[in-house]
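Problem: given the chain below (554 residues), write out its structure.
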Amino acid sequence: MRRLFALILLLCCIGYAGATVRITGFCPDPYLHDDADEYIVLSGNGPLDTFSITDGKGGFRFPCGTAINGDLTIARSGQAYRESHGNAPDFEWLDSSPDIPDVIGGRPLRMANANGSLMLYDGAVLVQSVAWPRDVKPREGQVHYLDGGVWDRRPLMLGQSHFAPAEFRNVTVTTFVSPDCSDELFSGVVSTASKEILLNVYEFSSPSMGASLAGAHERGVNITMLVEGGPVGGIAKDERAALWQLNRSGIPVYAMMSTKNVHAPYRYDHAKYLVIDRRAVLLASENFKYSGFASPGTTGNRGWGVLLEDPGLAGYFSTVFTLDLAAPSTVPYNGSSGPLESPSSEKRPAEFSPMKFEGATVKPVLAPDTSDQITSLIASANMTVEIEEMYIKNETPLTLNPYLAEAVNASRRGVRVRVLLDSSWYDTEGPNDNDEMVALINRIGATEHIPLEARCANLRVSRITTIHNKGVIVDDQKVLVSSINWNSNSPQFNREAGVIIDHPGVAQYFRAAFEDDWNPAVASPEQKTDYVKLIAAGVLIVLLLVVWYRRHRT
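Solution.
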């Protein structure tokens, strides 16, 4: 009996080790009514004749002769899946579409939304099981996926991309900062376009930038624009007017937005970039409006930007743009006539000009896809980390923002960390915003005696409207330029775009801009000695002593 048991156990182990098929994705709670478009993804190679999937109540197996080579998608209803995704699955387990093959089922499988499981069998051998909420956290619209043996390394919602990290070498980088020279750089880049411009931005309202694009279109450049269709507060009147004018000039404008029947893949399309002739990418932290790309000699937001010249990198961002443009929630947007945005009347002399650097290594940073590269960037620091952000929001009252937590950890191992935040009224007048964050960071530094310091920008001295930047400098060697805000939403649920640039010249350029904002900035100031109050307190103490003495003398 023992030998028989050992033989059975050995056969089971051999069956499990030899299996080349796994469940690598599933969506049990999609957006369509009655979850008709729920689906499962298998990955692997080889025949599927002996494989079956069950939830413990219902299930299915595959027709004789079925083989897998890569990924294979099985949907509950092929028709519903096609309605949601725009393409057909490989199989369906309910007979609804004559052109989509059916699996062989008994009792129909039905994935539960809140509490369920899936089990993959090879014959009688259980190859894999996944259960929720044990292994994954259930959420409407979330696609659960297996990556390196780990489920759900980050939230992946229906329709979102899943780009892998990439690296491009020998990239030519031109650096610029807002408000000093951003408008100059943008208009110059657009004037060099000869074939195509792909533009994706959260907000677009600058008449000057619109005129540059219209001029390029008139000389034959094919321009396509994608904007966020539901920004915070809605699309402003001056943006609607700017987009209306672009449409009238012949430039098609599209907006990514959720409707009653269609969910946008991202909470916000918050990226800010354009691709020129599939050879270069202009990417910035700033929206395409006068506050981000100020008229020459006027004030605006502090932001960082780069022009990246490399066909491979441009092709990467072209693919991102094309995928987002093809989302079912992306629709033509006409805008409406109305008053256009006016530039600032406050003058400010430019301190920084664009500078070009050769031979940089560049890693694209997409949210939500590869935003964890920011954590890795900060963790790589050996000497210094400079952080300039519009704001930092913690996960919970007791949990630091993950990027900030990594910066604090860097400081604990001796890395000098400086954090500069905006000081505009909307970032400091609340009970839990930038001034409280600065105080918290400085308290951690003082309590633990680590080289960690934070300040709120002195906008009056720097003559900057707002610190709108989302940048990091590490060891005067690597720089993050991006649209990613430090909150729980932006890195995980928005479409964001950034780059990590490895080049000492680029790092030193932005380090100079950081120092220009840091030096007049205001830390958590020490309380000045109030001599009037000290004298008053001294007089009061003397009077109390006199009273005490007289009472005790009698």
